Give the backbone structure.
Amino acid sequence: KILTDTKYRFQTNRWYNFEVRVSKTSFEYFFDNKLVLSHKKLNISKGKIGLRVWNVGSVQFDDVKVITVP
């Protein structure tokens, strides 16, 4: 199930920092420290992550990490 998505225009040949912040009440999504999307959290205690792109020739993801923050 996809919780949310948004359109974001990327420049070619450029690296981006992507971060998702999860709290008890919300998800917040950032590109280069700029908030691009947020939504209220559903009752989710575990799951998987996914990165999805479309209408592009080639995409690379590097150093993807999922960590627990106290």
